[in-house]
Design a protein that fits this description.
Elements (H helix, E strand, L loop, with lengths): L2 H12 L35 E2 L2 E5 L5 H6 L2 E4 L3 E5 L1 H7 L1 H12 L2 H11 L11 E5 L13 E3 L6 E3 L3 H19 L8 H15 L3 H5 L6 H7 L5 E2 L4 E2 L1 H13 L7 E3 L5 E3 L2 H5 L8 H15 L1 H6 L5 H9 L3 H15 L1 H6 L6
Parallel strand pairs: 4-5, 5-7
Antiparallel strand pairs: 1-2, 2-3, 3-4, 6-7, 8-9, 10-11
Helix pairs in contact: 3-4, 4-6, 5-6, 6-7, 7-12, 10-12, 10-15, 12-15
Length: 351
Amino acid sequence: MKIRKLRYLGIIMAAAISMAGCANTTDSESPIGNEITDDGYVEIIGTGSLVAGFAIEENDSKDSGKRATYPYVVRTKSTVWYLAADDIELMGEEAFFAGLEEVLGMVDQDFADARKALEDYISEEVQPVEIYTDFCNKAEASAYAGAYCHPVSHFIKLFGDWKQAECALLHEYVHYLTFVYTKVHPDSYFCSEGIAEYISMLVCENRMCKKSNYGAPEEYLEDLKNSDFWDAEENVIKLKNIYHYNGLCYANGAFIGQEYQNIKTSWDTRTDDMQQYMHADDCSYIEAGCIIEYLVETYGIDTFMDNLDKNLMTMSKTVYGKEFSEIYKDFTVWINETYESYAKGSSDTGN
């Protein structure tokens, strides 16, 4: 497998998901009946029924508009899900609830892992996060993001489909934790996105993202199955391996001349000057996650978390004794030394 093909996989995995068209609004008062399919799945699910062991409730909000838009609610230990009537009609009841069931089977474990990873920096007991489906992509943010955690109201909204949700949910939950519960809150794009990427992709197992194979298209998965980036036993990608590989590609300039999404969710084209004198806001999500890993490995997790509110473009020298562009150069050396096998063998790994 050639390096170019893997490199494009990185672009695809970091990209926003294309929007689906929106169906007409359903009648939120219409009953949802129960029908058991041959494989035992409850195809049509109503209030009081179970999805992955969790009851579907009728939304009893005092806000009539919210009740109409999100007629169904599901509660788990870590989450409160608001299910949009439009999304159920858009995807069809069977597909919608099958996707929900798969996510609910993993979400509490993944979210618990994130809380464990940050437990020394969380100031109080974490309350369940509200999650809203918006697969019709009505929110303005859906034009540039696959999901988001609102920085003020702190709910999570999901765009695209369930596969995109599996890729994005743990990242957004780390935002929720750091926006609300850590003793120091991120105050820059780099620290906010970097810690979300680091915890969700490089610290936690992230069962949801692994189950979706990081959102990779099937044609790329066929190539990966013949490479060191595939876990044949679990029949999924090796999530951290592919993540580090893409971080290595970015650090070595493999994306120069390519369009990519930076941590401000803007699409940009990587240039030689950007690579040579890296600005924190020009980093991709993958770079930010890998750089945080480098900072944690080099300076310690306490140093990074205690300075989570610092803008490293202006405060990097105060915190780490170096300008950010110097940090980036040191990171490039570190990731090449740490993942030397990728650097040497990636161009001819597999077929």
